[in-house]
Specification:
The protein is an alpha+beta fold. It is built from 13 helices and 16 strands. The strands form 3 sheets. Strands 9, 10, 11, 12, 13, 14, 15 and 16 form an 8-stranded mixed beta sheet that branches. A 6-stranded mixed beta sheet has the order 3-4-5-8-6-7. It has a two-stranded antiparallel sheet with strand order 1-2. The mean pLDDT is 87.
Amino acid sequence: MEINDHGAAILIRLGGSDTKPKTLRYFTAHTPEEWSYLLRAKTPLGAIDRETDFITCRIHVVRDGRMESDEFRPGYPYPQEFLGSALDLDSYLSWQKETLEKGGNTANVPARYRKRTGIYKYYSTDEILALGSGWGEEEEILRMHRAHAYAAFMHSTDVWDVINDKKMKLRKGLKIIRGGLLIANNGMTQGEYLVIPLTSSIGYQKQCHVVVHLTNADPDLGRKGFQPEIKEACEEVAKRIINNSLKKYKELLKPTGVSTSEDEKEKALADWIREQEDFQKNNPLSLSSAHFFKPKNEISISSIPQKEQDVIALFNQLIAGGVIRSINLLATNQTTQYDGVYRYVISEDEETYLHDEEANPLGLELEKLKNFESQPKVLEYKHNLDYLIQDFHNEEKRADDINLAVCWVMGESWREDFECTSFLLEENISHRNYHGLTHQLYSATSRIDVIVLSELIEYLENYEKSQKTQEEKYENDE
């Protein structure tokens, strides 16, 4: 252990006959990502209402003698982190207000706010106390301990299984995050889940996840919980949030009967990819000659793309012309759920793949060169990437399924669910893993490579202007 002249070092040893669980294998967590989720949910690393951006946690997981390491930020694992289609209720309320101020009709709800897996909201002390009258002594308790709350309302209890079983791949049925009430004190949840005391719509008890955070409300260690009056005040908060707030907006959720289980969709997608792979093996296409594919130093499309088909045509020209060199297309089919299948390909051929400011500006750094061909992956085309984000919100496509998006313009909707790294910025070239990629969108659960054709062309035609564009659009988002 490294010795420092300040701070605190804590070493915790686990083991022995009295340790429960007797083995960490109980959780079936194997990766740093899975363990960081557990630690954030069940230890002080799940800090609530704390500034933790300056803290980086490093985790090492040793399994069968092999160590895997990663880093993560501390903070409570709120459910929307794992659900690309959860709606921030405040954004919807802002839209409602703006629409009414403009004399619009709020009955015409945009698609981006409908058919959501869940809705969530953070409540200040004043917002809590505005949820009806007759608080009595509970108001004094809530003000004294500066109470605030978080609540999420899911369309189905299946969501908790999706997060636990499919996203985090933990022990089936464990439901680390689930419906119920948690009370937090001084930044950390304490105690087990409490039942939300609803007297009607009892099923919402298991669909709603509520965390009420207090300051200096020290629990009664003898009772292994909080004082009865504090517990009752928090239960009342949870009940009013559901009855007087979230319940009003349940029409924004997708129908309860629509299961979030994606097994059938995942199998259909896997079968489709396999079909394209088999077709390519059985029906190969080859055309190579010393006389063809010599560049004429310009593309054959003379105007900017106006629709998705134009994007597909331009993208294929850039591949054939050697502008983009790491993508081999297997199939394009716009009648299925997704548009195409491709493979990433790299080799150690420096002339083809090595980055050079003049001759190969979309290339890779030397350490990225290797002889590699990926498994078949899923590709989506859009004129504006906003339409793909809308597909995610409408549950028509899944971000987890898509590996590469090709578009003419990036749009703005990605900011709702993702962060972005621009590989066109000079300082980020080292992060580009495949020739020709311009950006990567990422969230807690998904990573999507992106080729934004308009920005790629600007980068090749006017480097200085491109750097300013990339800094203005993306630097503050990294």
